[in-house]
């Protein structure tokens, strides 16, 4: 599977505006990875409740990163381009 140029542009924009969780959520949705969708939605919901991303949530999100990167590497033909957008 490949993400489109438009999808990659959206990911770059989200990252540019420091919205790393939503960038990852968009990729998870594109890959239909329910585990990652639920995880990043939960992080985003808590971020909204607090009005910022608490340090503990940032640490938790970072713990998921290796598994998320493995998913991208295994499922995306254009992994380097997508990961570079993050």
What would your notes on this structure say?
The chain contains five helices and no strands. Helix content is about 80%, strand content about 0%. The protein is an all-alpha fold and about 90 residues long. The mean pLDDT is about 95. The longest helix is centred in the C-terminal third of the chain and has 21 residues, at about 55-75. It has one domain (about 5-85). It has helices at about 5-15, 20-30, 35-50, 55-75, 80-85.
Q: What is the succession of H and E elements?
A: HHHHH
Structural class by helix and strand composition: mainly alpha
Assign an overall shape: globular
- Helix fraction, binned, reads over 70%
Question: How many beta strands in the DSSP annotation?
Answer: 0
Mean pLDDT: 97
Cα-based radius of gyration, to the nearest Å: 12 Å
* Total of DSSP H or I helical runs spanning 4+ residues: 5
Gap from first CA to last CA: 18 Å
Helix/strand layout:
Elements (H helix, E strand, L loop, with lengths): L4 H12 L3 H12 L2 H17 L4 H21 L3 H7 L1
Helix pairs in contact: 1-2, 2-3, 4-5
Features:
single chain; 86 residues; mainly alpha; 5 helices; 80% helix; globular
